[in-house]
Amino acid sequence: MTPRQNGRRLVPAYLATGGRARPSRNTLDRLTLLHGVDMPPTSELRPEERRILELLRPGALSLAEVAAHLRLPVSVVKVLVADLVDAGRLHARVPIPEAEQFDRQILERVLDGLRSLKS
Amino acid sequence: MTSIPEALLWCLSAGTAAAVVLAACLFRAQRQGKALAGRLAAAEEQNAATVRGNTELNARLRATEAEIRHLAGARIPDLTTALAHPHVPVRGLLDGRFADSETDHALTAVLDQISEAVTKERLRVDAAAQATLRGATTTIQALLYRLQTALQEMQHRYDDPSVAQDLLHADFLNEQALRRIQATGVVCGAWPGLTREDSYLAELVVGATSRLRGYERVQVSNQLRDPVAVVARAVEPVAITVTELLANALHHSHRELPVTVTLQQGNRGASVIIDDYGVGMHADEIEHAMALMSGEREVMLTQLGDPPRAGFAAAGQLVRQYGFGVHVESSPYGGVRAVIYIPGDPLLTVLDESRQPMSVMAPVPHRPAAAAGGSVPATGSGTSPAPVAAPQSAAPQSAAQHAPAPTAEPYAPAPGTPSGHPDPGAAPGAEGDLPRRRRRRPAAEPEPNLPRSEPVADRTPEETASRWAALQQGTESGRAAAARPEPPRSPEGNPHA
């Protein structure tokens, strides 16, 4: 994407959380959906937290996507997100359960129903 | 037979002759005696003088011997000590009468010779030690970088909190080891060991803090107007210098006290100002530090103490090699203020944040209220999906700024230039000015990106049924109207006609 992905990192990941990798809540997952809360940014927000909120302003993103945008490990982003959720600046929603395999019979019945609509 | 008178005459004449001869002899003897007496007196005088001279010489010899003993016993040891510790005085002559004499010159020549020999030998030994250390640090540093890469990959691979925690901790330890090795290597004349890309100054400073224990006490405030970056070759040297000065600040202040770092942009360069609120440094400590960091003299390992304090010396080496400036002084707050001044002309450039996003941990610049406009500054928002779609800035982007510019060209503000293109009419301003780039206004989120929040209109089942029926009928009639020779399409296919 950008040339700097090849370069050696200048700022290590532990700086974002002060070395913490244990989130204050263990309900977060890679697929947890995050929504921003409409709250004006305050000065006590750290730069990385500010960036997360900026990222989420257009809409919800999964935690893994946020981590990819920030180029930080998921474990570190979990800590940041957990802090923001604790501060009431983010809503975290459990991941949408994996969609079940469609039942062929139901699909056929839907098709039949659609065909019958024509008449 | 001879007569008695005749005999008497003979006797008398013989006697007279003898008397005459004797008289002559006496005269001569007297003269000789006088001469001898004179010579004797002269000889005695000479003798006395010789004895006097001898005594004098003897005394002189003894004094010279004492002087030589003094040289061997006191002056040479003094000299060798003074060569290692310049504040130790070297004693002078024992006897003042020798001053400026032949002996004095000879002894001084001896001292000079010794001084030269010792200095040469020390330099040789130091150079050998430096070479050994340089070789070792270079290898270790390369290994630590590989370890860093491995740890970073593992951090991205493992989510488990306890594993991640250990990985972060190991990463931090590795950074600290790297810092030590790197500084030692630089003191020994090695290059910083890493060439980076052009990097934002804010990012660089934050990166430098991460190499130190106690980094959480460092508060970075970014007062830069532009996204100022350091050119590739100077990134690591400046980072090392900032790290060492920060280490000094953290070391000299209490664990509870903050260390504030301010990034300030000037007309011709940028400064990193490090303030601590600690115990401060003595005047002679500051003087020593400044002498080391002025980069004016060669550093010797033996001057760095035991254990060697390599920080300032490393900074001094880098200052000399890369041409930025370091200044240390007592701060008005009682602690120490260190300023690193990076001249804009060879060492700074300006990067485009949409092409090269800043690290998320880099501090956001403080914007004046006018620029904020009710929204957050778009610092490094290149990673967010918004600005790619909405580059509605009125300022030119310096897209061609990635290569380290040998001379930083200032970019003239040209509001009419279409965005997304480098400004070709960049007129160089005053010589040595910092390159300028207008900051892009925070990108507004494009509206069409938000269909997910639209409410779905309620429909009755009948309505739905009629719509689907209409779709079905339309599809059928469309297919009927289409050319017959075409192969029959699947029900899902889109009718083209």
From TrEMBL, chain A:
Q: Name one Pfam family in it.
A: DUF742
Q: What name does UniProt use for this protein?
A: DUF742 domain-containing protein
Organism of provenance = Streptomyces catenulae
UniProtKB/TrEMBL annotation, chain B:
Pfam families (alphabetical)? HATPase_c
Query: Which GO molecular function, any one, fits this protein according to its record?
Result: hydrolase activity
**Region Disordered: what ranges?**
365-497
User: Would the keyword Oxidoreductase turn up in this protein's UniProt record?
Assistant: no
User: What keywords is this UniProt entry annotated with?
Assistant: ATP-binding, Hydrolase, Kinase, Nucleotide-binding, Phosphoprotein, Transferase
Under catalytic activity, the entry for this protein gives: ATP + protein L-histidine = ADP + protein N-phospho-L-histidine
Stretches with biased composition (Low complexity): 384-411
The top EC class is transferase
Domain (Histidine kinase/HSP90-like ATPase) ranges: 241-343
Basic and acidic residues bias (residue ranges): 455-465
Record bears the keyword Disulfide bond: no
Q: What is its EC number?
A: 2.7.13.3
* PANTHER family (UniProt xref): SENSOR HISTIDINE KINASE TRCS, SENSOR HISTIDINE KINASE YKOH
State what protein this is by name: histidine kinase
The record lists the organism as Streptomyces catenulae
Q: What is the lineage of its organism?
A: Bacteria, Bacillati, Actinomycetota, Actinomycetes, Kitasatosporales
